[in-house]
Each structure stands twice: as structure tokens, then as C-alpha cells.
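hey m, so remember when u said the C-alpha cells were messed up on ur end? i reran from scratch. heres the input so u can diff it against urs
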Amino acid sequence: MAAVPAPTLVRVETPTAPYDVAIGHGVVDRIGQLVAGANRVAVVHPGSLHDQLSVITSQLSADVEVLLLDVPDGESAKQADVLVSCWERLGEAGFTRNDMIIGYGGGATTDLAGFVAASWLRGVGLVTVPTTVLGMVDAAVGGKTGINTRAGKNLVGAFHEPRGVLCDLSVLASLPRAEVVAGLAEVIKCGFIADPEVLTLVESDPAAATRWDSPALAELITRGIRVKAQVVAGDLTEATSVGADVGRELLNYGHTFGHAVEAHEHFGIRHGEVVAIGMVYVAELAHRLGMIDAGLLARHRSVLESVGLPTNYRGGQWDALRAIMAKDKKSRGSTLRFVALTGLAQAEMLVGPSEDVLRAAYEAVTPQVSVGSISTLA
């Protein structure tokens, strides 16, 4: 039997409350020490993972009272009524500042759990145990928490750093391949904005990148977390970026258009899939404005498509998408702001591109459908 590699620790050096992200097989056994001193622990989890909760509860002391907060799966959990329900349960159980919240699930669950922890008694302890690739490399690291509203995604929230994050790779065994692939979008994003070795690893063996137990995926997840940890440490609360001085907004590469698609589809498309489309969209913008060459633009499509991620979106939706983008949190007044590349691992803020260029980039990510000898936009 092959030896299990030692866990990797990535330190998130925030100025207020530094913490570690543990990555490896079996790291969930560290949860007991992270919640030490708590009298009660509330585990926020989706109903679909109820049968897996023993991986958490078996690691807790018998003296700790455990409250299970069952929430809807996916983005349906990030709603005001679900948040209020969690508050009510905490109040009924008599949760105090000495007690803690554990978020166990995908990115939507850890976003909600983090906001529950941030808002209850103005902030109680939090530990996140992400169960998806997306959750590990994105939502569970960085201290951003929040819920959605009808106006858009993540418009209500708070910054609340966890005491620790446990990325137990063993839980990926039950994850559908489509979810692994979707999570890779956020990893590939890190390759374009900061760590080109990520792109090289994916390109060298796309199949290995999508296998839950492969060393390649473990390295990709670790690299993605390191990128996020470094960016977050330098700009915890996302100060406004100007020009080439891009702070935490760097992590939003591909998200402006991607979030618009996600909201327009009522969250019926996986987050990683819309981020993939969003990266191609902003690459098309940058190419049209002379910021990146055709080779880097083409690399966006080739890397994403190699693992099975989408790079196009349906036509005829521009007006609706443009209206949603106007509400993006990076916007200032009526001016759209995008994180764009000027080269591989080189970014700057793209402010107020013309409406003609915005529309042209959209048309470039709508698929071409051939009808006989005529090619038309779908």
C-alpha cells in the first residue's frame, strides 16, 4: 500500500488573523484542535451530505454539543431566508461567542456558513471544510462570505477570516467528474493571472488534471490556494485597484461577465463553467483593445476546452447580460471595470470600454452554427 503524502500547509498571512490551509488526504482529523474550547459547534451542511457528517462529528470531543444546520444544496443556500433560519436555530440553541461554526460543503455552503459566523453576535469562530475543488481553491479561502439577492450574486456579505481551512482531498472521491472539471476553472484562472505553471501542468496531461486522486490535481489545487493566499494577504478587504496596481480584485478575472451569465441563468450553470466563459470574454475584450496577442487569447480556449470547460455562451442575450453587469460590485457608478491581462500573469484594470467593444466581445463568445453553406450566430 502506497504511503499517503504528508499534508501541505499554506499560510494565509492576513494582517489581522493569519491562518493555515491544510491540503491532503485525511486532514479533516485536525478539526478537533481547531474548535478546541468551544462548548457548541454548528455544522452548516447541504442535505445531500448529511450521510457524510460522521467525518466531522467523529473528530469532535464528546463534551462538544453538535448542532446540525441542514441547508439547501448549491446556490439555493445563499438566500436571506436560509440565513435567517440559521440565526433562529443558533438562538434556540443558545450559541455564545465561545461557540463555533463549521462550514462543510461546496463553495456556496462555505460562503453561507462564513456569513452566519460573521453575523452571529457580530462574529464567532469559523472553520471551513470544503468538499469540492471549487470550494477548496476559491470560496473557502480568503475570508469573503455572503449571500445572493435578486439583484445579483454576493451583494450582501462580510469579510470574516476562518480559524483554519481543511482541504481533505479524500472527500473528492464522491464528487462527480463534472464538478471536478468546473472547479478547475478557478485553478486555471490562477494560471493566467499569477502562476503559468498551472497552465503547463494542465496542458501536459488534461486527463490527470480531472482525476480526483491524481498527484496532478493535488498540485493544481495547492498552487491555486497559494495564489489566492498571496493575493489575499496583500489586500484582505479588496481595496479599489487602479491601473496595473491590482489587488484582490485580481481574483475576479473572468467573473464580471461570468457572474452576469450565472445570474441570467438563475444559477442553473455551475460557477466554474461561467467563470470559464467569462475568462474567454474578457480575453476577447483585451485582444480587441490591443492588450494581449492572438496567441494568449487562443490559449484561453485551448486550456479550458482541454479539460471539458465551456468557452461559448448562447447568442441573443446581450441586453440582459449588459444590464446585470452594470450591477457588478467592481463597477463604479455606471462605469464597468474588468480585470484584464496585458500578458501572461500580468494584469491591469480595464475601465469603461466602449459599448461597441463590449458587444463585439460578446459576439465572439457566441457559437457559430453552420446551416448549409451559411454560418450564423446561434
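this time it looks ok to me. The radius of gyration is 21 Å. if urs says something different then somethings off w ur setup not the seq
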